[in-house]
Structures are given as C-alpha cells and as structure tokens.
Amino acid sequence: MSDTHTSSQGANKLVAEVAMQSLRRHKLIDQFFVIVGLTILFASLLTLALLFTDLVRDGAPRFGWDFFTHFPSRNAERAGILSAWVGTSLVMLVTVCVAMPIGVAAAVYLEEYAPKNWFTAIIEINVTNLAGVPSIIYGLLALGLFVYKLNLGQSIASAGLTLALLILPIVIVASREAIRAVPRNIREAAYALGATRWEVTAHHVVPYSSGGILTGLIIGLSRAIGETAPIITIGALAFIAFLPTSPVTSDFPYVSFTWLSDPFTVMPIQMFNWVSRPDTAFQVNAAAAGAILLAMTLLMNGIAIYVRYRFRKKINW
Amino acid sequence: MNMKSLAALLSMVTIGLSAVPFVAQAQTVKIDGSSTVFPITEAVAEEFQIQKRGKIHVTVGIAGTGGGFKKFCAGTTDISNASRPILAAEMQLCKDAGIKYIELPIAYDALTVAVNPKATWVDQITVAELKKMWEPAAQGSIKTWNQVNAKWPKQPLNLFGPGTDSGTFDYFTEAVNGKAKSSRGDFTASEDDNVLVQGVTQNPNALAYFGYAYYSANASKMKALKVVNSAGQAVAPGDASVLDGSYNPLARPLFIYVNADSLKKPEVKEFVDFFLNNAPTLVKEVKYVPLAPAAYQFAKEHVKNGKLGTVFGGSPKVGLKVEDLLKMEAKQ
Predict the structure, then answer these.
(1) How far apart (Å, rounded) are the C-alpha atoms in residues B2 and A222?
(2) Which of A189, A250, B75, B160: disulfide with B208, CB 3.0–4.6 Å?
C-alpha cells in the first residue's frame, strides 16, 4: 500500500518535472524568438539609417537653396533639381487625383454593394494579384495605351495616370481593410433608422474609415514617388531646363491645364542620370538628390502615421 | 473623408506651384538617344537656352541609341543622339515613315580598354588578343590571362563590359569581333559604366572597356592599355592619338541625326548651328575629343546644302576619320 503510494508520488513528481522541463524549453524558445526578432528589426533599421546618413554625408556639399532652384547642368556644382522636384510634385498630384476617387469607389463597391458571388471573387483575386505585377509591365501598358492610343504623349498626364494605375491595387486593398474595420452594428443602427445604403456609406462608413484609406493612399504614393522604370518607358526626359506651364494664370479663368501635356523629368531619373555620369563630381549630386527623395518618402509616411492617429482619436464608438 | 482638409491641401499645392515663375509657351526642340552623347548635347542645350533666355526650349532624353532612333523614325523627336551610325533596319524604319535626315558627326570618343594598376603584366594589347577574349567562341573556355597570351600569368580573367543595348557594345564588337553585337555572354554587363569602373578599380584580374570620359575621370585608379593599331604601333588613347587617327580601331565618331523637316523650323536650325559653332569648346569641357575644325566646317556645309542620308549604308565602319566620312557619298 505504502509502496504504491510512494511510487504514485514518484510518478507525480516525474510528471511535474517533465512539465516543468517542457515549460522551460518553451520559454527558452520564446526568448530566443524575441532576440531573433529584435536582431532582424535592428539590422534592417540600421541598414536604412546607415544608407540615409551615408547619402546625407556624401551629398552634404550640395544641400542648400540653390540645389532646389537650379536646373540640371553640365557643371556639377551648378546643377540642381528644380525641374525634377517640380515634375515629381505635378506627377504625384495627377496620381492622387486619379487613384483616390477610383480606388475608394472600387473599395466601397466591393465591400458595401457587391454581391458575394464568383464574379466578385474573381475581381478580388485579380486586384490582389495586380499589386504584385512588376512596375515595368505597367510602363509598357501605359506606353501603348496612354502615350500612343489615347495620344497623351510623353507628358505629365501620361506619367500620373501610369503611376495611378500602379498604386490602385494598394489603395483598393488598404481601403477595403479600413472599411471592413467599421463595426457591423454601426451600419445596422443606421439602417434601423431608415438610412439608405448610400447614406450609410457616405455618412458613416467612409468617414469612419478615412484614416485607413488615407494611410493606404499615402503608402501607395511613397511607392510611386520612387518608381523609375515605368516613367522611363513612357519617356520622361533626362535634361529639361524649363518648368511646365503654371497651373494658375493671370488671365481668366485663372486655371490652366496645359501643364498636363508638358514634358517633364522626375527625381529618380535625375538621380539615375547623375549616378551614371563619368565625372565623379556628379556622384555628390546623386547622393544629395537621393537623400532628398528618401526624406520626401519618409515625410509622406510620417504624414500617414499622423493622419491615422488624428482620425483614430476623433472616432468614439 | 474630410473633404475640407483635402480641398485645403489641394489648393495649397496649387498655390505653391503657382509661386514658381510663370513661363510662356515656347518652341521646343526635342532630342533623345544615346546616353554616351548625352553630356555633349546637354552642355549645348544648356548654353543655348541661356543665350535664348527661355524663348526656345530644348529637351534631351536618354533612351539609348536604338531607342532614340525608334522615336526619331516615328517622328516624335527632331534630333537623335547616336554613338554609332544608323543601322539598315533603322534606315528602313525611317524610310517607311517618310523621315529624311542629315547625319552629322559631332565628336570623337576613344573606347578605352582598362585594367587594374596591379596588373603589371600587361601594358598593351593587340586587337587579336582582344578578340580572343571577347569573341563568342571564348564563352566558357577562355578563363585565365595566360590562355590569351602565354606571357601573361595563370590568373582568372574577369571581364566587364557595357550592356547589349548600348552603342558602345555595338561598336566594340564590330571593331574587335568583326560583327556588331557578336560577343561572349559570360561577362559582367552593366548599363551604368560606373559599375564597370568599379569592377576594374577593385579587381586586379579585371579587364573592361568603356568610353574615354570614364577613364579620364578615374585615371588615377586604373590603367588604360595601349592598343596596337593597323600600322603595328601600340598607341595610348588620348586627344592627340584620336585626332591624328593613330588610335585605331577603337576611336569612334559620335553623331547627331537631324530630321530634315524639323530643320526647316527656325528653332531647330538655330540649335544645330549653335551646336556646330560651339562644339569645339563644349565637347572638350565634357571630356570628349572635338573633331578637327575643318570637320565642323564640312558639317555646317552639309546642313546648309541639306545633304540627306547616311554615309555608312546601314553598317558601322571601323577606323575611319571624320574628314573622310564627311566627303563620302550618302545613302538614304
């Protein structure tokens, strides 16, 4: 009797020990993963930081007002990025104006209106897949469609439309996530009060999800701002020492859209051009332009984070 | 969506852009083509626009020689930069589209064969040796220096060259292997010549070829090989040896092709005249070799008389002096 008692006690002890051991091992794996994760995180952040400081250090002699207000030149010290940053800003303006309404409308339709059937399933799969298509493909499509078929030429409009196409999948996917995050009961409450589907969407769903939608849009834009391949394909220029026509004129109706058809260059192309020059002085310009491009991207991401924070704070449900 | 803040943002962007000085609509000279010729055309375009005070606009692209001709023969550009003469297929393209053109040599470039300064065993090279290294048959079989010349050490041979889309590649393969675009494929290729420069400066076993400007900007970090010419002399690349024709067959002329219909427009005519008048100083400034003064004079006469077509008949010729080129009969 006492024998069996002690043996069962021993067995219990053994079980406890095995459990403890397994627990310890799992905790160890836990800690191990934390360390691996942190290491990888720091490695990637450190790479970015090193890259950025390296660019800033290499490009330091060029930073100054002149760099932003001078056109490109054969003389590295005189060369600036005026036509490049104006070109990039205008192309981005077109991209926003096209990608935002279409992207949000598509997301609203898919989430709020579309019936769940095989047809919408195919659309969904395609939208997700489009996000992974190499950007050069978009460039070739745009060359055929916008530049030649629609006869827009090698213009700011063509470039803006191309990049809008490129970031549409990103905008749509992000907007859908944001719309889906709006709780079901808000919609039900609105319907219960007799609101139509359009009213529910316009007054509740879209305003509540606008933080997420804007974030998606800005992340898309940060990708578009660095794109070179599709822009080269549709024919951005490497040397351009004049600005597009001003969008605001002194005569009635004070707004001009001729800039849409003007030739242009953008920051990544200006940078690429400088990198491949024989004269090593241009490497400094390339580094400075790179740092500014990176800063523009970081700034846009910063705005995305701030906007999300602001909208989150406003919403109480 | 907060429409008010969006509208505010958009109007801010618009106002910000309108602060940029207003520019009146001006005539535009459109140029595209070779990235090798780009620095020259850029310099001319820069000076020209300063002189014209913004009345005439000039745009210059870097689609590459081949890409440039595609646009040129579609009629979208007025002038095409080319680091090799127009090819038969491109001539046909232009002919089909009814595009007539004037071929103008504007500068020389010396293709430079460079090695690392630590490669003490080699100072000069023959075209036959270059061929042994670069011909298609060398692919996978020629891997060490001593396979090319028994006096050279048994060390790996690491080759660097421009990408297959560049006119530099076309010219070098024509001059060395006897047929444009025929080359071994197992070398480190890059469209960015600075990658080739880095390859040579960092690797003692490397050999590369690129435009002279890339060598002269990095001359302290690498060694340019003398090339044995048709007369049997080993000649180093440089302004003098290119001009007197002794650096052959790797000295090549660079061209611009001007659309004959565009030339009737006063702004294009003015630009071409400005180009030929200022080429001697500007070409030197961007580290290329200017033609002899007489050659620019000939070119100006061609513009005046409207001499159409190419003197090459669709295939590049190697080792010709520009003065001779300009006297040759042209075909369209």
Answers:
(1) 21
(2) B160
Q: Could you tell me which of B87, B40, B37, B86 has the C-alpha nearest to residue B63?
A: B37
Q: Which of A171, A191, A167 is nearest to A179 (CA)?
A: A171
- Inspect the interface and report whether the beta carbons of B214 and A278 lie closer than 8 Å: yes
Instruction: Give the integer Cα–Cα distance in Å for B309 and B95.
Output: 10
Q: Is the Cβ of B15 closer than 8 Å to some Cβ of chain A?
A: yes
**Amino acid at position B240, single letter:** A
Collapse the DSSP code of A116 into the 3-class scheme (helix H, G, I; strand E, B; otherwise coil) and give the result.
coil
Return the number of other C-beta atoms located less than 10 Å from residue A128's C-beta: 13
From residue A279, alpha-carbon distances to B197, B211, B286, B329 in Å are 12, 12, 8, 37
DSSP annotation of A111: I
Would you tell me how many other CB atoms lie within 10 Å of the CB of residue B105?
Answer: 25
Q: State the best of B6, B20, B57 to mutate against chain A, taking most chain A CBs within 10 Å.
A: B20
Closest-CA distance, A220 to chain B, in angstroms, reads 17
Looking at the predicted structure, is the pLDDT value of residue B115 above 50? yes
Reported as a single tens digit per residue, the pLDDT across B288-319 is 899 988 889 888 988 888 888 887 777 666 66
Side chain identity, residue A231? I
| Interface confidence: ipTM more than 0.85 | no
Question: What is the tens place of the pLDDT at every residue in B165-220?
Answer: 788 888 899 899 988 888 999 999 988 888 999 999 999 999 999 999 889 888 99
Compute φ and ψ for B155, nearest 5 degrees. Answer: -130, 150
B104 and chain A: CB distance < 8 Å anywhere?
no
Quick count: other Cβ atoms within 10 Å of Cβ B25? Answer: 9
3 state DSSP class of B309: strand
pLDDT of B131 > 60? The answer is yes
Whether residue A277 and residue B39 make contact (CB cut-off 8 A), yes or no, is: yes
Spatial contact of A161 and A270, defined as CB atoms under 8 Å apart: no
The tokens for B107 are 């500068």
Beta bridge partners of residue B33, listed in sequence order: B81
> Does the beta-carbon distance from B18 to A258 stay under 8 Å?
no
Q: Kindly state the DSSP code that residue A205 receives in the 8-state scheme.
A: I
Q: Which residues of A touch B168 (CB under 8 A)?
A: none
Q: What phi-psi label fits residue A97: left (phi over 0), alpha (psi between -120 and 50 degrees) or beta?
A: alpha
**CA angle, A124 as apex, A121 and A127 as ends, to 5°?**
150
Nearest to A98 by CA among A9, A161, A52: A161
SS3 annotation, B198-256: HHHHHCCCEEEEECHHHHHHCHHHCEECEEECCCCCEECCCHHHHHCCCCCCCEEEEEE
Instruction: Look up residue B259 and give its DSSP letter.
Output: E
> With a cut of 70, which residues of chain A have pLDDT below it?
1-7, 248-255, 316-317
State which H helix or E strand residue B103 sits in. strand B101-110
Per the structure block, which two tokens stand in for A8?
Answer: 């069962």
Please give the order of strands across the beta sheet that includes B206-210.
B188-190, B158-162, B206-210, B112-115, B223-224
